[in-house]
Amino acid sequence: MAAGGLRPSMSDDARLPTSCPGEEWCPVTATASLVGKKWHPVIIARLLEDGPLGFSELESEVDGISSKVLSESLDDLGEKELVDRTVVNEKPVRVQYSLTEHGESLEPVIVALGEWGEEHLVQAEEGSASVV
To answer: Residue ranges of the HTH hxlR-type domain (predicted)?
Structure first.
């Protein structure tokens, strides 16, 4: 069993390289750094729900995100091997985004975040969430 009582489910050679600040490697911190940016979990959730999407489709599914931030987020998720970018050779040529195997394996984490939010959060007047 790994540190903190968490048992790894993938072989060492299939895992993504990450690091943690401090002296000991921490899987919670490393995972949070992968999906902890504002738009990353929402993008992953939309790709889990809807499957592969083009840039414009994804932009309309992620309410409130700008094109620039979506592009930067997709690049970051691609570098972290969570999202795959595929050029589809149709007329006109388009790009489609999908989750990698690592990205798909985040489904229980994204579902748990949503369930916790449904149970413990209410939307505040200005659009932010508050714990109830």
So the answer is: 26-125
